[in-house]
């Protein structure tokens, strides 16, 4: 397969939208951590402490997710530059790294979503139907 400029260019909107989604998750979790921290300071509830630990893990995962998405974006840009300079083999290698970075980012997102369900389970633990 011949790598052309249009192939890495297709990643631009996908990566940009992914970064927006990751950033929205990060901001929502950060706000929740601040709110729970205030509640924990006044009540010292164990349940809140557990939730804060889970949210801390989620923030770490989202930060890694964002980092790999950024590497993917930079790889796509570098691939286009290398194609422009007619360094085809190097462009192919960098593009493979870029795609791999996006795959790692998505896997980390899947893990973060699984961790987020644990936080919800902690919240729902004391409600009986």
UniProtKB/TrEMBL annotation:
<protein>
    <recommendedName>
        <fullName>II family cellulose-binding protein</fullName>
    </recommendedName>
</protein>
<keyword id="KW-1133">Transmembrane helix</keyword>
<keyword id="KW-0472">Membrane</keyword>
<keyword id="KW-0812">Transmembrane</keyword>
<dbReference type="Pfam" id="PF11026">
    <property type="entry name" value="DUF2721"/>
</dbReference>
<feature type="transmembrane region" description="Helical">
    <location>
        <begin position="67"/>
        <end position="85"/>
    </location>
</feature>
<feature type="transmembrane region" description="Helical">
    <location>
        <begin position="91"/>
        <end position="111"/>
    </location>
</feature>
<feature type="transmembrane region" description="Helical">
    <location>
        <begin position="12"/>
        <end position="33"/>
    </location>
</feature>
<dbReference type="InterPro" id="IPR021279">
    <property type="entry name" value="DUF2721"/>
</dbReference>
